[in-house]
Automatic annotation (TrEMBL):
Belongs to the metallo-dependent hydrolases superfamily. NagA family. It comes from Allocoprobacillus halotolerans. Gene3D superfamilies: Metal-dependent hydrolases, Urease, subunit C, domain 1. Residues 46-375 form the Amidohydrolase-related domain. This is N-acetylglucosamine-6-phosphate deacetylase.
Amino acid sequence: MLIKSKKVYIADRFVPAIIEIEKDKIVNILQYDDSHVDKDYGNKRIVPGFIDIHTHGAYGFDTNSGQENGLKEWQQHLAKEGVTSFLPTTVTASKDELIKALKNIAKVKKENSQGADILGIHLEGPYIDKKYHGAQPIQAVVQPTIEEFQEYQNAADGLIKIMTMAIEHDKNFSLTKYCASNGIVVSIGHSSATLEQVTFAIANGAKSVTHTFNGMSPFNHRENGVVGGALRCDSLYSEIICDCNHVTPEAIQVFFRSKSKEKAIMVTDSLMCKGYEVGKKFQFANLEVEIYSDGSAHLVKEGNFAGSTLKMNEGLKKLVTEAMVPFDVALQSCTSNPARLLNVDNQKGSLVVGYDADIVVLEDDYSVMETYCKGVPQLKKG
């Protein structure tokens, strides 16, 4: 298959080009000419597929529910927002519930279902701080142990790639060191850690911060907290929810100025309520959640944030048009940066010969015209 556009994003800029796809790979990227191709996208922007490393669900499905058909349907829906790869993300729960969810993801992964590729699992909790538990059930929070984590990884068939943890509760950084030595990213989140504790967690293998600014000790000019670590420590990758509700556009701008171009990662942190109308209520982690008019999801009783209904293409638009982040930096935060964190940047995150043919065609308003997941068009447009 040959596709072309006058705006193909390669080598950090848009150029006229032709992309040749064979099976699931990009096999050639050629100079633009007037020869026949299968799809001519004119002046539409062709960019790498988006990678969402922190997303709990959408369209009525929640990762913790462990429903096979719901996960498969979610995979297919993700193409509408340009997502070609993702990490289904759990929330703090009982061991039995988590093991059920992990086994379900592993089963669906083996079946190679249509739609976005499951790159692994993001285990958010149960090793979090009770002060900063957020919308996660505090009664299920436990102390981290290597032995219990091994049970989870066995249930997941080795698919846990990121684990969010309050590192201040990891005695002697034992689990942090274990994960680092086994290629699992420890991401600091739902944490009351000090900047000093963050610093030593990095020294023991921690690599990232989960949804920066949310669910963590804040930045103060005398007590810098986890936020201070995210902004100050150049080696840390740092997630940020770019719905402009969880974090203001101004704070997003400060975040991107502080992080290097290679370390900022946009995530949706979306819940099962994504894809539904304002006012819709859901049960999430045994709590009732409602969609507000701005698209954010809140706990009905407490009123605080529970997650988002953000779509990745909308997040990219908000980064550029509201937070005033340069397009190349914004795009990298949802393509090559998460690929690098997950150590799959030799096959995903860029339009390069030999890489997976994960490709998105964007309209001028950032809506998705077409998404190719490993070379297969998902929306049948254009």
